[in-house]
Design brief:
By secondary structure, the protein is of the alpha+beta class. It contains seven helices and seven strands. It has helices at residues 28-37, 85-88, 146-165, 182-192, 197-204, 209-228, 235-238; strands at residues 4-11, 20-25, 47-52, 92-103, 109-125, 132-137, 244-245. Strands 1-3-4-5-6 form a five-stranded mixed beta barrel. The protein is globular and about 50 Å long. The chain starts with a strand and ends with a strand.
Amino acid sequence: MTTVRLPLFPLNSVLFPGLVLPLNVFEERYRAMLRTLLKTPDEEQRLFAVVAIRDGLEVAPSAPGLPDPTSQPEQGPAAGFGADPLKAFHAVGCVADAATIRERADGGFEVLATGTSRVRVHSVDASGAFLTAEVEELPEEPGEEAGTLAAGVLRAFRAYQKRLAGARERSLSTGAELPDDPSVVSYLVAAAAVLDTPTKQRLLESADTAARLREELKLLRAETAIIRNLPSLPATDLTRGTTSLN
């Protein structure tokens, strides 16, 4: 088993490989993490691990413009996560590469990162200014019939999008470029579908690409059927994305 130690960034959401993660960082523990990442030489990647916080466990409350309770030194970088931070997070996360880090005048940061690979978290260290974790990269195996399943998932996803947006079949663009790599399809659909965090986490942890695609096919068909029976569903509100705040 080969592991590496990376800065750890817990979120109330799931990051998938290949997906972009915008962050608005204002808590001191994460500011400290980004100040450290900025010391990385330009020719190297600025990597950190993103993990989803388990239900019922959240970062100490804070919001832009309000005092940040986690900035108090005695609370430490694990504030809000209990005595054993490892238990507060899901065990499988995703490495992120912070391609863009911009420091604001107020000391906060605007970050644009991209998910790179899945990792399993083995331990969490809260002894420094920010959390770090010992992580092991998880290989992405294709599984059986991944290509065929990917094609089916893309068809189901288009039907799902049509129902979600209230569009007519003829209004859909048939010339749009779609990914042909099954693993890329599986992660794209997992990120784009309107699903709760536990479901997205389960998709991230799938044994292989084919298993993830099989579950997505079931989920998309079920969600499309539900939406079909809820014509007044405010789809525009459901699909509006927001920047993660931490």
